[in-house]
Design a protein that fits this description.
There is one protein chain. It contains 23 helices and 12 strands. The chain is an alpha/beta fold. It folds into 2 domains: 315 residues, TIM Barrel; 96 residues. The strands form 3 sheets. An 8-stranded parallel beta barrel has the order 1-2-7-8-9-10-11-12, surrounded by 8 helices. Helix 17 runs parallel beside helix 19 and helix 19 runs parallel beside helix 20. The two termini are 21 Å apart.
Length: 549
Amino acid sequence: VDFDNTQEAYKSKGNMELLRSLLVFRLCAIDTLVEKNKELMELTKKLFGQRIFEKIMKMTFYGQFVAGEDHNAIKPLIQKNRAFGVGAVLDYSVEEDLTQEEAEKKEMDSCVSEAERESPDADQREKKYKAHRQFGDRRGGVISARTYFYADEAKCDNQMETFINCIKASGGASADGFSAIKMTALGRPQFLLQFSEVLVKWRRFFNFLAAQQGKSEMMVLEQKLELEQLQESLTKMGFGAKDDIENWFSGEKLGLSGTIDLLDWNSLINNTTKISNLLMVPNLESGQLEPLLKKFTAEEESQMKRMLQRVDILANHAVEQGVRLMVDAEQTYFQPAISRLTLEMQRKFNREKPIIFNTYQCYLKEAYDNVTVDIELSRREGWFFGAKLVRGAYMYQERDRAKEIGYEDPINPDYEATNRMYHKCLEYVLEEIDNSRKANVMVASHNEDTVKFTLEKMNEMGLSPTENKVYFGQLLGMCDQISFPLGQAGFPVYKYVPYGPVNEVVPYLSRRAQENRGFMKGSQRERSLLWRELKRRLLSGQIIYRPVY
């Protein structure tokens, strides 16, 4: 695959499209324009009116980064890209244009439970997993991810319907499509915060028990706790009589080997119980399992159930339509719950082929542990593992929040460490594919070195692109010099394809402009390749070039 071959890279683009790319990327490199982009768009709308504003947008930013207004309008672009070997991950990119105060109010209303309102400091909650007003606007410092704020259950139902339409559009547009969803669009985020805290506390309790058995220095999956010793410890700590503790580990396969590892331990948190019973945490001081919150209202219980039901409905639709579902990653205070819920979906729906894909953020210090633990679970239970690997979208916000509120920064120290983590996770998944052919991975990256690294590893392992186990992903309107040569060489490659009405995708476009500013300043490469191809065409007399497909 030659990423310098401009003729291959831009074969699908007419000259006007190349000129538009050059114009948009040039505009993205002008600081003042990017910083004031929202105000400038408003001014253009006022001066020229809605119709001309939409025309200007379609000739520039909207035309570059968005596929069309609805699922019918996007079909020609999807079919054209498909003809050049590039598939689509559909993403309906409409966003509310809230002020900061409105966003903060919505976040606080939806992340604080009834029990916390009545007695704010009564529960032993951790600062990281509580809502904080100064970080209530989750859009702050985030440029490449869409943000949903909870209003009510009806709004979540509407968002679920939007995702269902997106899944249907993916199924109708191609035989091998993907659709992207976000958990925070599907329910009240209070549940994600609380369930994340529960999962993290149980994991920490396991680490504490492993340390008691002198195993804290081992790799996470090598920490196998001796069952008898573990039962004695739990009895001594007052968590119950010996018989009660033995009942904890009396599941069908639990403890048969005489040891308990992290996956056995995780299975103690059973998703089939009453949901508020899920939110029980061990208290080391009292030796009791205690509810995370002093009380749950019936409404809170049903809100949590409805969130799980919506996720289940979407997965069923994906199966019916033959579409794969990508669950996007979000902030670290939501992510443990999002990952666990996605894992439960994988266990149920990935029995015969990979339908549900979880997203792993490789800028997190714990990324490798997360990938290895989830792959081991898929091995034991015999389902298809599906992963999308990204570097991550929330770095500045995560760092600021950790520093301000006072917990450990979850992000790798620098970009190089994140690169190493990405390649380490990727290599592990590729080895799993090589061993079992049951894992699948999307390398979602604009980094040419990462793509080359993947191709080299596939070559070494003899993994053929036609096996459809390793996919590549880039955003629409960016990095065509990576996507199209890969597609034409027979590799499964996909564009994240946003769509929606011009007015309602303005917040999305605003962020694309900001992301491209950093991207364009750091790399002149894409612009120089576009110029080179345009010059080549003009010099060879191709003043009017129309893609043939």
